[in-house]
Amino acid sequence: MIMIADTFDSRARANMEVALERACLLLPAGAEQHENRRYIASRILKCADDGNVTLSGLTDAGGRAAHELCERLARPKVSRAKAHKRGSVSPLQQNIE
User: Fold this and answer.
1) CA gap 81, 85 in Å, rounded
2) Count of other CB atoms within 10 angstroms of residue 8
3) Rounded distance between C-alpha atoms, residue 57 and residue 12, angstroms
4) Boundaries of domain holding 16
5) Which residues are CB-neighbours of 44 under 8 A, at least 6 positions away?
6) Looking at the 3D structure of the chain, how many domains does it have?
7) Which phi and psi (to 5°) does residue 96 adopt?
8) How many angstroms separate the CA atoms of 89 and 85, rounded?
9) Nearest residue to 23 (alpha-carbon basis) of 1, 40, 5, 47
């Protein structure tokens, strides 16, 4: 597990926090759940690990992650019954139904 405080200086950590907040503002209302914030934060952290700790670089990475999440949230969810008809339900799920 990466210790952010030990790896990055205070300016880089502040840039990461600002980038995360900016990216979360791009999510639709109600989508700023912990798991979505965590996903965005992981993408920002990867950017920083790759050596880009500028505010613009981190903000871009967070924005791309938020855009990916928005696309996922916009996709219609397929019910298990429909998935079963299409044959995409696992054998375990078939036993549950």
Assistant:
1) 6
2) 18
3) 11
4) 4-96
5) 16, 19, 20, 23, 58, 61, 62, 65
6) 1
7) -75, -35
8) 8
9) 40
